[in-house]
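User: I've been trying to design a sequence by hand for this structure and keep getting stuck. Would you show me what you'd pick, starting by listing the structure so we're on the same page?

Assistant: Good idea, let's start from the same input. This is the structure you sent:
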């Protein structure tokens, strides 16, 4: 997985999650549950922002099957694979 992908996804997550400057987002940051705890509206916003940022189309079911929403790193790896950068 590309380091820049992780950084770009982390920036999107921070923006979508409306995190303050003191809140750090890393590769291991969980996106649902105990982590950022994005709600369904925020997850949709995240999906749209990722599609726009990386120029890809993501099917929500494919995303769920890939378990790409567990962490920032998992989402970045999914994006890299989808964009052909893996």
């Amino acid at each position: 997985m590309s380091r820049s992908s992780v950084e770009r996804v982390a920036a999107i997550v921070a923006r979508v999650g409306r995190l303050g400057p003191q809140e750090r987002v890393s590769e291991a940051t969980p996106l649902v549950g105990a982590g950022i705890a994005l709600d369904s509206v925020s997850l949709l916003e995240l999906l749209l922002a990722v599609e726009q940022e990386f120029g890809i189309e993501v099917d929500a079911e494919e995303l769920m099957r890939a378990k790409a929403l567990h962490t920032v790193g998992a989402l970045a790896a999914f994006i890299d694979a989808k964009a052909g950068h893996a």
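That's my pick for every position. To get oriented when you compare it with your attempt: The chain has one domain: 3-83. Residues 40-54 form the longest helix (15 residues).
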